[in-house]
């Protein structure tokens, strides 16, 4: 069963990554990042169960904490950018280039 | 046996939801899709005897973080759908190639590892009397520093968000006298008509009438009005439907004419700032 | 009496003094610079007098440890070859200062001394010149290889600024090209210096201790290559020469003289001192290559010189041909050839220096460096034309003038060991006659071009510049013995430590004559 | 077969001060050049004084040398060490060098005096006398030096002086080109001599004549000796305008006439002959080299004569004849010890009568306000009596009129040549005939026949300061030949310096041998033919279009055209090619490298698109690579 879980987690991670690459709306990109984080949590929990060692679950717990902090800051930035630029598209902020 | 069934059901649901998250046009739909994924994962945690995590996932993650997303979506304009046409040349193609490649690689990696049957955390949790005490004992003995650091992290995150979102008051707070002066120098001295003042109806979606009898575009919520028109929930009385359509058209005309800021309902405070700013 | 340190300190202090003069004091800056350089000249002469040619090899040595961790010490010392080159630079600098009296001034009416405010600050120019002199003396006096390398690179900076901010129209291109070329060479040498330090495992950079230490032939070859390429770029051997014409053409006349007269000599001096003595077997291995390069340089430099239209570029190409002779002499590894090469370094400094300075006077009068813009100067300024002729003739190694003695010794020394390169090298003598006399004819003879009518002859200052150079050229031409007596023992020791067995491969009659001596 | 005697170190007496001969004119040149305008007034007198001073020292040394018995007549004086360990400059006084010195200073002084008159109107006459003194000093250094290096210094010094004097009137572009051409072609000759000196040094380890005596043949292989001989010959040809390198002599006539007289008739052009005679030891040890010398001599002899026949410019005609007479001397020098005495004898007599004729031509030009074309002369005899008489004496001497000086020395050369190699002998006789023709042509066109003067020309006799040297020179060209040749007086005098031949035939007053009579006949025929064409008949003022042979001669046997196409044009092409290669090739490479680096960095810059998503893509690719690597390493 463990391989199934891991493959699922890999699949979710890949979809999240593709989502980050394809979507232009900052918030959707942010959600895809959250999806990738969750995929990792799933893998951690699976390994915890596999090795019979609670560390996996502990790590997953910490990941959630960090994810929360990250979301707060990320969304604050998105709001701030939106307020100044009136657009939440990721591609609009491309002044720092050649 | 039950576990495999739940796994396969939830796996399919979560993958579909993930795909939906990535490919849906509207941001709100993506948010909901993410919620679905999170919930299915929570169940999977539970199945993998991590009840505490399942609970935290549902309460904290889905409950709080997802809702945060929805809030920001609302702020940013829930209807801001973006077209799926790709602007960067070759981005889509290479993104998919990379995604597939990565997934294949991981699958390959996982594939060629032969797993012994899972040991399961049962034995450890019994010794400590349940999953939560075991986790608690670990957190507060071996990982107490990490725990304290995460608490500091959360506080700073909260503080950070406030600092980021805070807008320094550039001018003194508008006093009562200023507000009065602004109102009478502004285009709209009298308070805006309440939804029902000359309202023929007390429904939220019905536009109020201006003293000169014309429909007030600002008195309705454009998003709701648009939904009604699109999904044909307009009131049966054609005359009322016409009023909604008229208000909506007038709002969009004004929006085109004045540029974006006409979208939001004008607060007096902003009017003051705008005037002084000129 | 730490002669060498004083010799380096005085110009540096002078430079600081010149730089700190109040703003806008151009004339006093020049006078102070001239005074300082004359003091240095006096000190050099005093030092040279005390130098005993047949005494032990390095004299006036000073060794203070500088970076004990690497065994780098502030080692100075002078042997015959280095002394002669230091004397050359000490003589050239005051002459150059005197000659570039108006170089930094705006388009002053020619000849008159009260020129209007200069376009660019004369103070920095003369300060740079003095700093350059200090480094020139340093590079020849250093017996510690690391110190030599430091001076080798440091010399580029003042010259870069002198070309870069005081040069002609394309000065920045020329200055950058000069700097990149030399740095490229210098970095290779840095690698070789470090490798040498590591391979020798003697925890010292002192040159006398490192002679013949590196035994294994392959490392010797690599280290030799590192050193040699740096020196080949510096003293332009054939493929690495394209920076010299640009730098010399764009630099002001005084800077060009120092660039060609002394800076490039560091390259050939380096070959003679470091390449030959530190890596004897590698030198012998690479000798055929170097001989081919130098002979190509001689012929190629001369031919391209004939085709030039710009006066200073032509003189630059002639000095590429002369450097071919010097390198040929160094690597022919016979007593006559190497003594001739060293003497050639000195003579070349005087003859090409005189050519450049007089070209500078002409450009100062006419404003353009194109040969076609002149014609019939001889009628209008006979003294100027006469000096130009003597300098040109010493350029084409006319007997009775200095370059002939050295060129003769180089060629006869090379002929003793390699006949064909000497013969091809001797062809350069004919090409030299063509390019010098053709230039002289187009500029000085024929009907006086109207643009040249307003020329004034050499004024007092310019006479003081040209007279010592011409005197040196004629004196060294007729009586080179005193200089050769200083050079010969030093060359002898160089050849010993370069393990050259048959220094004088002449036939039996030589022994008979030698015995009779 | 007696070889030259040992050189003895000498101190004291006139010979002890013989180095003054070089020093005095050198000092004079230095004073006049450095003095500048201040020395203008008395400059020329100083020049003449210095030249006469040198002549006095030469005569004193000559007298002291005669006083010594023949065995020790080679005196060496040590001066100073030029290049330590290689060569020390010194003076060698022996019969050969003293006879040259006498010729140079004697004729030189006469020409100095003559130039006072000739150059009287030229405002930088001072510079002219400075260069003349410089020339005399360099020529004396050449002939008096006791080693090859000193000889070489004198050799190039003479080349420099000729460059300065040919190009004396610098404002004339033709003079400047002629001067440059002379110097460059001399330099080609010097290149040969330089390589010869290197070979001598490498094989014998010394450059002093003292060590290169007759035993030279034993110390080196035949091959090297021939090589040395040929290289010295190349040097000699360069300086004496012999065949391969003769193009510069005719252009050298651009210089003032005294220059042509002194340098291109009497002294400099004979330096080549001196070199061949002085290095006799090498040539005797290498017969092939000697043969080549004789061949070159005869070839030049004929070429010079042919050119002489076609030239209308009097100075160019005389230059052609000089070339041919030096051909005779080279022929004589190539015959070994037997010919040396006659070669040097002819050299000295030629010095007198050729200088005499050149100065005569100079005074004619002076009178006809610098007209050089003989077709503009005619019937000058009555008007310029002294010049005409001296010129005719010179003419008779050069064609070998019996009893005059040219007859004895040229006859001697032809006799020895006939004895040595008949083919060369008869060619020499043919040359003598041609000489008879063109010299007579020159005399008849100039002094006899009808008047063809330009309308503004009113010739008059030159002032005394010019005619006195003419008279002295003509006296010399009458008696000198007989004095030297009869009784082998000059041969015995030269013996200690150059050795003596196995047997010395006793020359007789009037040669009756077959060769002598044939020469006389041919000369007479030539003169008669010339009288018929130019004396009696009407000489057209403009040169008629000649047959193929005349244009061939007029174009100096296409010597210049040959040089042009063989060396000049390819040279210019090569120069343009290498300048192009240098600018485009090497510089192109360097600048290309720089541009290349600039280009790549420009393209690399474009990777920074500014879009967050493309950066995310590259990060993702990076992650994929890392996973792949881990996988690869994991199960490797």
From TrEMBL, chain A:
Domain of life: Bacteria
Catalytic reaction list: a quinone + NADH + 5 H(+)(in) = a quinol + NAD(+) + 4 H(+)(out)
Alphabetical keyword list: Cell membrane, Membrane, NAD, Quinone, Translocase, Transmembrane, Transmembrane helix, Transport, Ubiquinone
Membrane topology classification: Multi-pass membrane protein
Assigned EC number: 7.1.1.-
Residue stretches spanning the membrane: 6-22, 27-47, 59-82
Broad class of the protein's primary localization: membrane
Similarity-based family: Belongs to the complex I subunit 4L family.
NCBIfam families noted in UniProt: PRK05715.1-2 (NF004320), PRK05715.1-3 (NF004321), PRK05715.1-5 (NF004323)
Quaternary structure and interacting proteins, as annotated: NDH-1 is composed of 14 different subunits. Subunits NuoA, H, J, K, L, M, N constitute the membrane sector of the complex.
Role played: NDH-1 shuttles electrons from NADH, via FMN and iron-sulfur (Fe-S) centers, to quinones in the respiratory chain. The immediate electron acceptor for the enzyme in this species is believed to be a menaquinone. Couples the redox reaction to proton translocation (for every two electrons transferred, four hydrogen ions are translocated across the cytoplasmic membrane), and thus conserves the redox energy in a proton gradient.
PANTHER family, sorted: NADH DEHYDROGENASE SUBUNIT 4L-RELATED, NADH-UBIQUINONE OXIDOREDUCTASE SUBUNIT ND4L
Protein name: NADH-quinone oxidoreductase subunit K
Gene label: nuoK
UniProtKB/TrEMBL annotation, chain B:
Superkingdom of the source species: Bacteria
Catalytic activity: a quinone + NADH + 5 H(+)(in) = a quinol + NAD(+) + 4 H(+)(out)
Subcellular location: Cell membrane
EC number: 7.1.1.-
Listed name of the protein: NADH-quinone oxidoreductase subunit J
Stretches that traverse the bilayer: 6-23, 28-46, 52-73, 93-115, 144-165
Region listing for Disordered, in residue ranges: 174-196, 248-278
InterPro entries for this protein: NADH_UbQ/plastoQ_OxRdtase_su6, Nuo/plastoQ_OxRdtase_6_NuoJ
From TrEMBL, chain C:
One GO CC term on file: endomembrane system
Family note: Belongs to the complex I subunit 4 family.
Pfam families per record: Proton_antipo_M
Keywords: Membrane, Transmembrane, Transmembrane helix
Domain NADH:quinone oxidoreductase/Mrp antiporter transmembrane: from-to ranges: 142-421
Name under which the protein is recorded: NADH-quinone oxidoreductase subunit M
GO biological process, one term: ATP synthesis coupled electron transport
Bilayer topology term: Multi-pass membrane protein
UniProt-annotated location(s): Endomembrane system; Membrane
Gene Ontology MF term list: NADH dehydrogenase (ubiquinone) activity; NADH dehydrogenase activity; ubiquinone binding
InterPro entries linked: NADH_Q_OxRdtase_chainM/4, NADH_UbQ_OxRdtase, ND/Mrp_TM
UniProtKB/TrEMBL annotation, chain D:
Single GO MF annotation: NADH dehydrogenase (ubiquinone) activity
Transmembrane segments: 14-34, 46-67, 96-116, 128-145, 151-171, 191-209, 259-277, 289-308, 328-348, 383-404, 424-444, 464-487, 507-531, 615-634
Main location: membrane
Domain of life: Bacteria
Keywords: Membrane, Transmembrane, Transmembrane helix
Residue span(s) of domain NADH:quinone oxidoreductase/Mrp antiporter transmembrane: 145-435
Topology relative to the membrane: Multi-pass membrane protein
Full protein name: NADH-quinone oxidoreductase subunit L
GO CC aspect terms: endomembrane system; membrane
Gene it is expressed from: nuoL
Domain NADH-Ubiquinone oxidoreductase (complex I) chain 5 N-terminal: 88-129
Compartments, record wording: Endomembrane system; Membrane
Any Gene Ontology biological process: electron transport coupled proton transport
InterPro entries recorded: NADHpl_OxRdtase_5_subgr, ND/Mrp_TM, NU5C-like, Proton_antipo_N
């Amino acid at each position: 069963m463990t391989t199934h879980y891991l493959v699922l987690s890999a699949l979710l991670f890949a979809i999240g990554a593709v989502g980050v690459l394809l979507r232009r709306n900052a918030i959707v990109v942010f959600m895809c990042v959250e999806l990738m984080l969750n995929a990792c949590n799933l893998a951690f929990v699976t390994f915890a169960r596999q090795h019979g060692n609670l560390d996996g679950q502990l790590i997953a717990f910490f990941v959630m904490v960090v994810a929360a902090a990250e979301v707060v800051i990320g969304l604050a930035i998105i709001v701030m950018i939106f307020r100044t630029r009136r657009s939440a598209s990721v591609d609009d902020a491309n002044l720092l280039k050649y | 046996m039950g576990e495999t069934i739940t796994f396969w059901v939830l796996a399919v649901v979560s993958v579909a939801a993930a795909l939906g998250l990535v490919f849906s046009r509207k941001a709100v739909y993506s948010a909901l899709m993410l919620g679905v994924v999170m919930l299915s994962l929570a169940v999977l945690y539970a199945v993998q005897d991590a009840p505490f995590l399942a609970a935290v996932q549902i309460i904290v993650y889905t409950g709080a973080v997802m809702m945060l997303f929805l809030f920001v979506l609302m702020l940013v304009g829930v209807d801001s759908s973006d077209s799926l046409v790709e602007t960067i040349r070759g981005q889509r193609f290479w993104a998919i190639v990379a995604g597939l490649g990565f997934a294949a690689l991981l699958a390959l990696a996982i594939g060629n590892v032969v797993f012994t049957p899972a040991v399961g955390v049962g034995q450890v949790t019994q010794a400590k009397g349940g999953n939560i005490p075991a986790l608690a004992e670990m957190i507060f003995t071996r990982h107490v520093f990490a725990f304290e650091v995460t608490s500091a992290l959360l506080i700073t995150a909260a503080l950070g968000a406030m600092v980021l979102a805070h807008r320094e008051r550039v001018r003194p707070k508008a006093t009562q006298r200023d507000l009065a002066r602004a109102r009478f120098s502004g285009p709209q001295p009298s308070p805006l008509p309440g939804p029902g003042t000359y309202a023929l109806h007390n429904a939220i979606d019905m536009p109020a009438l201006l003293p000169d009898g014309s429909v007030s575009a600002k008195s309705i919520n454009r998003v709701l009005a648009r939904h009604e028109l699109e999904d044909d929930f307009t009131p049966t009385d054609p005359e009322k439907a016409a009023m909604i359509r008229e208000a909506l058209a007038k709002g969009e005309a004004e929006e085109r004419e004045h540029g974006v800021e006409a979208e939001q309902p004008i607060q007096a405070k902003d009017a003051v700032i705008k005037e002084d700013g000129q | 009496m730490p002669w060498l340190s004083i010799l380096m300190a005085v110009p540096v202090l002078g430079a600081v003094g010149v730089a700190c003069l109040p703003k806008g004091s151009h004339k006093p800056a020049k006078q102070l610079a001239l005074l300082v350089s004359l003091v240095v000249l006096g000190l050099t002469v005093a030092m040279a007098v005390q130098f005993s040619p047949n005494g032990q090899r390095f004299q006036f040595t000073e060794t203070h440890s500088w970076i004990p961790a690497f065994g780098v010490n502030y080692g100075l010392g002078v042997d015959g070859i280095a002394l002669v080159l230091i004397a050359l630079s000490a003589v050239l600098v005051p002459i150059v200062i005197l000659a570039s009296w108006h170089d930094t001034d705006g388009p002053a009416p020619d000849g008159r001394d009260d020129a209007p405010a200069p376009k660019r600050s004369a103070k920095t120019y003369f300060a740079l010149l003095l700093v350059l002199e200090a480094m020139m003396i340093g590079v020849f006096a250093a017996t510690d290889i690391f110190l030599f390398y430091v001076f080798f690179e440091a010399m580029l900076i003042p010259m870069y600024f002198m070309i870069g901010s005081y040069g002609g129209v394309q000065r920045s291109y020329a200055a950058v090209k000069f700097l990149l070329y030399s740095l490229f060479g210098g970095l290779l040498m840095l690698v070789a210096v470090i490798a040498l330090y590591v391979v020798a495992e003697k925890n010292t950079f002192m040159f006398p201790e490192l002679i013949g230490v590196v035994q294994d032939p392959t490392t010797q070859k690599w280290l030799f290559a590192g050193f040699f390429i740096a020196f080949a770029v510096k003293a332009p051997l054939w493929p690495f020469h394209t920076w010299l014409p640009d730098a010399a053409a764009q630099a002001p006349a005084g800077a060009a003289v120092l660039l060609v007269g002394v800076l490039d000599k560091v390259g050939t001096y380096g070959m003679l001192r470091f390449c030959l003595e530190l890596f004897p077997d590698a030198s012998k291995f690479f000798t055929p290559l170097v001989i081919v390069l130098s002979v190509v340089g001689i012929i190629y430099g001369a031919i391209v010189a004939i085709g030039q239209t710009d006066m200073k570029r032509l003189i630059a190409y002639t000095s590429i041909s002369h450097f071919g002779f010097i390198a040929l002499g160094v690597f022919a590894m016979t007593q006559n050839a190497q003594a001739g090469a060293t003497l050639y370094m000195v003579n070349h400094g005087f003859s090409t220096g005189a050519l450049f300075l007089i070209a500078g006077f002409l450009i100062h009068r006419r404003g353009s460096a194109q040969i076609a813009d002149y014609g019939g100067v001889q009628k209008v300024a006979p003294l100027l034309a006469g000096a130009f002729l003597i300098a040109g003739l010493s350029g084409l190694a006319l007997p009775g003038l200095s370059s002939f003695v050295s060129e003769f010794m180089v060629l006869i020394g090379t002929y003793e060991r390699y006949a064909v390169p000497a013969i091809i090298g001797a062809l350069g003598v004919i090409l030299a006659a063509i390019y010098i006399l053709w230039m002289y004819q187009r500029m000085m003879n024929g009907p006086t071009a109207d643009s040249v009518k307003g020329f004034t002859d050499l004024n007092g200052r310019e006479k003081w510049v040209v007279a010592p150079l011409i005197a040196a050229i004629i004196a060294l031409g007729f009586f080179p013995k005193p200089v050769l007596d200083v050079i010969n023992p030093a060359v002898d020791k160089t050849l010993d430590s370069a393990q050259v067995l048959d220094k004088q491969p002449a036939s039996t009659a030589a022994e008979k004559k030698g015995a009779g001596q | 077969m007696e070889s030259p005697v040992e050189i003895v170190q000498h101190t004291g007496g006139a010979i002890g001060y013989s180095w003054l001969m070089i020093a005095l004119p050198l000092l004079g040149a230095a004073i006049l050049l450095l003095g500048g305008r201040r020395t203008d007034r008395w400059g020329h007198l100083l020049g003449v004084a210095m030249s006469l001073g040198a002549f006095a020292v030469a005569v004193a040394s000559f007298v002291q040398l005669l006083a010594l018995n023949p065995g020790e007549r080679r005196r060496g004086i040590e001066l100073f060490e030029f290049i330590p360990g290689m060569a020390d400059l010194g003076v060698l006084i022996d019969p050969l060098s003293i006879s040259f010195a006498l010729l140079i200073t004697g004729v030189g002084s006469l020409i100095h005096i003559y130039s006072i008159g000739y150059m009287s109107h030229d405002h930088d006459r001072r510079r002219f006398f400075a260069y003349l003194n410089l020339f005399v000093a360099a020529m004396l250094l050449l002939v008096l030096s006791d080693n090859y290096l000193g000889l070489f210094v004198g050799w190039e010094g003479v080349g420099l002086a000729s460059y300065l004097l040919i190009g004396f009137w610098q404002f004339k572009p033709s003079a400047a080109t002629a001067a440059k051409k002379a110097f460059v072609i001399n330099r080609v000759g010097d290149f040969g001599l330089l390589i010869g000196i290197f070979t001598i040094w490498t094989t014998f380890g010394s450059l002093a004549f003292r060590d290169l005596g007759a035993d030279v043949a034993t110390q080196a292989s035949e091959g090297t000796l021939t090589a040395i001989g040929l290289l010295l010959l190349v040097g000699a040809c360069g300086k004496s305008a012999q065949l391969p390198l003769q193009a510069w002599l005719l252009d050298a006539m651009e210089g003032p006439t005294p220059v042509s007289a002194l340098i291109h008739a009497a002294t400099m052009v004979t330096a080549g002959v001196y070199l061949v005679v002085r290095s006799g030891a090498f040539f005797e040890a290498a017969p092939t080299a000697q043969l080549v010398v004789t061949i070159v001599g005869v070839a030049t002899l004929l070429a010079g004569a042919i050119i002489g026949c076609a030239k209308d410019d009097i100075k160019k005609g005389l230059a052609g004849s000089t070339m041919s007479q030096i051909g005779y001397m080279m022929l004589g020098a190539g015959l070994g010890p037997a010919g040396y005495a006659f070669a040097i004898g002819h050299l000295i007599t030629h010095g007198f009568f050729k200088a005499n004729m050149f100065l005569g031509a100079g005074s004619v030009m002076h009178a006809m306000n610098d007209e050089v074309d003989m077709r503009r002369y005619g019937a000058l005899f009555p008007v310029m009596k002294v010049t005409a008489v001296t010129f005719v004496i010179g003419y008779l001497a050069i064609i070998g009129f019996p009893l005059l000086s040219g007859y004895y020395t040229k006859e001697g050369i032809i006799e020895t040549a006939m004895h040595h190699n008949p083919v060369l002998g008869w060619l020499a006789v043919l040359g003598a005939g041609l000489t008879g023709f063109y010299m007579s042509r020159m005399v008849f066109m100039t002094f006899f026949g009808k008047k063809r003067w330009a309308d503004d020309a009113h010739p008059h006799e030159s002032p005394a300061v010019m005619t006195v040297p003419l008279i002295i020179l003509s006296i010399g060209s009458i008696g000198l030949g007989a004095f030297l040749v009869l009784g082998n007086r000059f041969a015995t005098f030269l013996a200690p310096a150059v050795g003596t031949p196995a047997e010395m035939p006793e020359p007789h007053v009037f040669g009756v041998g077959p060769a002598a009579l044939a020469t006389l006949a041919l000369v007479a025929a030539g003169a008669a033919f010339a009288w018929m064409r130019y004396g009696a008949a009407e000489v057209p003022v403009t040169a008629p279009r000649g047959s193929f042979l005349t244009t061939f001669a007029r174009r100096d046997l296409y010597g210049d055209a040959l040089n042009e196409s063989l060396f000049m044009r390819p040279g210019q092409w090569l120069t343009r090619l290498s300048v192009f290669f240098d600018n485009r090739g090497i510089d192109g490479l360097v600048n290309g490298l720089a541009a290349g680096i600039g280009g790549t960095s420009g393209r690399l810059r474009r990777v920074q698109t500014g879009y967050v998503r493309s950066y995310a893509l590259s990060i993702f690719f990076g992650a994929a690579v890392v996973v792949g690597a881990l996988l690869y390493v994991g199960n490797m």
